[in-house]
Write a sequence for this structure.
C-alpha cells in the first residue's frame, strides 16, 4: 500500500464502508424484493441491480479485508484510526441499531395481526437491517463529526 | 443542580505552537476529526487523551481544559 496520511486513511475507510453497504443493500434488497413481491417487468432490472450489487459488495469486501490487514501490520495507524471518537461513534451506532431493529420487530408484530407474514421473510428483513443499520449509523456519526467544516484553523 | 460543560483552549495553543489540527492529531495519535470535535466542544475526551494533549503543549491539563459553569440551572 502507498504512503497515506491518517486523514486519507480515515476517508478511505468511510468510502469502503459506504460502497460495501450500497453493494450489500442492492444485492440483498433486490433479491428479496424479487422473491416476495410481484415485480412484473421490473424483474430484469432488479436482477441486474442485484448482480451489480453483489459484484460491488464482493469487491469492497476484499478491499476492506486488505485495508484491515494493512491496519494490523501498522499498530500506530490502527490505534489512531480506532481512537476514542471512533469507539464512541461505534457504541452510538450499535445503540441506534438496537432501537431500529426493536422498532421493526414491533412493527412486524403489529402488522402480523392483520396480514400473514412468512417467518422467512421476517428473518430476512431483520437480517438485512442488522447488517445495514450499524454501518449506516456509523457513517452518519462520522459525517456529523466532520460536518464542522473547520479542517484547519 | 448545575450543568457544566467543558471549555478548552486547544485552538489557542495550536495557534501559539503554529500547528494544524492534522499535525496535532498525528502527534497525539488520533484522527483530525477527534481534534476537531474536541476543539468545538462536540466531544469530551477521556482523561488520558486530555493529559496527552496537555503534555504535548507542556501545560497543566486544567490550563487546557476548564469547566464552564452556570450554563443552565435545573430547579426542582
Amino acid at each position: 500500500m502507498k504512503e497515506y496520511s491518517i486523514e486519507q486513511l480515515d476517508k478511505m475507510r468511510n468510502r469502503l464502508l459506504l460502497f460495501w453497504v450500497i453493494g450489500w443493500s442492492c444485492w440483498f434488497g433486490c433479491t428479496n424484493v424479487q422473491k416476495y413481491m410481484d415485480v412484473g417487468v421490473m424483474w430484469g432490472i432488479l436482477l441486474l441491480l442485484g448482480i451489480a450489487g453483489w459484484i460491488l459488495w464482493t469487491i469492497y469486501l476484499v478491499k476492506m479485508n486488505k485495508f484491515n490487514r494493512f491496519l494490523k501490520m501498522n499498530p500506530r495507524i490502527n490505534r489512531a484510526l480506532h481512537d476514542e471518537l471512533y469507539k464512541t461513534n461505534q457504541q452510538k451506532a450499535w445503540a441506534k441499531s438496537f432501537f431500529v431493529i426493536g422498532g421493526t420487530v414491533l412493527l412486524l408484530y403489529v402488522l402480523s395481526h392483520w396480514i400473514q407474514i412468512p417467518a422467512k421473510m421476517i428473518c430476512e428483513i431483520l437480517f438485512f437491517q442488522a447488517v445495514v443499520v450499524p454501518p449506516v449509523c456509523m457513517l452518519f456519526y462520522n459525517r456529523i463529526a466532520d460536518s464542522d467544516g473547520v479542517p484547519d484553523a | 443542580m448545575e450543568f457544566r460543560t467543558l471549555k478548552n483552549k486547544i485552538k489557542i495553543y495550536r495557534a501559539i505552537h503554529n500547528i494544524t489540527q492534522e499535525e496535532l492529531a498525528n502527534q497525539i495519535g488520533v484522527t483530525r476529526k477527534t481534534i476537531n470535535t474536541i476543539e468545538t466542544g462536540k466531544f469530551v475526551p477521556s482523561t488520558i487523551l486530555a493529559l496527552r494533549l496537555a503534555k504535548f503543549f507542556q501545560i497543566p491539563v486544567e490550563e487546557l481544559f476548564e469547566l464552564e459553569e452556570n450554563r443552565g440551572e435545573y430547579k426542582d
